[in-house]
Write a structure and sequence with these properties.
This protein has 316 residues and is an alpha/beta fold. It has 9 helices and 13 strands. Helix 1 (51-61) crosses helix 7 (254-267), helix 5 packs across helix 6 and helix 8 packs across helix 9.
């Protein structure tokens, strides 16, 4: 994805995001009734989605340039997904067609409070081999971002990035503990969800888990905590940036927007606290809009929000 046309391409930071691509249908309803039930949506979005896609989208929308490395099936849904990414301006040279595989799908129901029910399908029989990855393109990248839905590809990319000195981040979203144990030690920036952190740490609360994981990790360890903002381990203690108070409409992709914004802000030299404040603002603004990643704000909107709000990501 090329990013804003007003920024000269040579000046933009470049991120590669590795993970799943899926066809997503998002429904907005007033509430989810008890089962069995039928409920009519007030809005619907159909888009190509996935955590890596959303993080790359946010990184580019906020001023960078991003590419996605992922897999799709050789079915009609995969062809539609590929074309949709092209139509949005994504660079699809790193999107690989897996023969005989079904393209991932997800259905999402969002209620009036912004809470969501997510039902994803990933083809367990799809060939996970990462040998086709264009790892040489990391030479021109400023940052690598990986999520855990395709562990073989993420691990290969992370090892190559570390060998080349490219800073890398792992999205520690909820996943099997053994998957996280393969990926997290390879990350310069281990940025969890609060629930994913507790899976990795084996329980406890967020602060206890951050102290445990942070003390053992070679790089940054933090957790996005929804309305409670971002918490991270630093020199034996826990620091926090609070999230701005907003009217929540849709939390889908907020964590992915946070990751994309956090990576870009780090590359711009903001430091952890400044990057966390910027990312909290971007993710919070996204939550005020329905449509998953399509609700990601522009750079101008985030900058204006930070400049005008005394509540935008206050440090604690």
């Amino acid at each position: 994805m090329s990013g804003p046309a007003s920024v000269p391409p040579g000046k933009r930071k470049r991120m590669i995001a590795v993970g799943a691509v899926c066809s997503a249908t998002i429904f907005r309803v007033d509430h989810v009734p008890p089962l069995p039930a039928k409920v009519l949506p007030s809005e619907r979005f159909q888009l190509v989605d996935g955590m890596a896609v959303s993080a790359a989208f946010a990184f580019a929308r906020l001023g960078g340039s991003a590419q996605v490395w992922s897999r799709i099936g050789d079915d009609w849904l995969g062809r539609m997904a590929r074309q949709s990414l092209i139509d949005e301006g994504f660079d699809v040279t790193g999107v690989h067609v897996v023969p005989g595989a079904a393209t991932a799908q997800v259905a999402v129901i969002v209620d009036r409070r912004g809470d969501r029910l997510v039902v994803p399908f990933h083809d367990a029989n799809a060939d996970p081999t990462p040998d086709w990855l264009p790892l040489g393109e990391l030479d021109a990248a400023d940052f690598l971002h990986c999520e855990a839905r395709w562990v073989e590809g993420a691990e290969a990319a992370l090892r190559a990035a570390r060998a080349k000195g490219v800073p890398c981040m792992v999205d520690g979203e909820v996943a099997p503990a053994e998957t996280l144990r393969r990926l997290i030690p390879l990350a310069d920036y281990a940025v969890f969800s609060d629930a994913g952190l507790l899976v990795y740490a084996g329980g406890g609360d967020v602060e206890q888990a951050l102290l445990q994981v942070g003390a053992a990790h070679h790089g940054h360890v933090g957790a996005s905590c929804g309305a409670d903002g971002y918490a991270w381990y630093e020199n034996g203690r826990i620091r926090r940036v609070r999230a701005p108070r907003i009217e929540v409409v849709d939390t889908l992709a907020a964590g992915d927007v946070f990751h994309g914004a956090f990576a870009l802000a780090l590359l711009e030299g903001r430091g952890i606290e400044g990057a966390a404040r910027f990312a909290c603002a971007a993710a919070s603004l996204k939550c005020t809009r329905f449509g998953g990643r399509l609700g990601c704000p522009s750079r101008a909107e985030v900058d204006a929000f930070l400049a005008s709000s005394t509540d935008a990501g206050t440090a604690a």
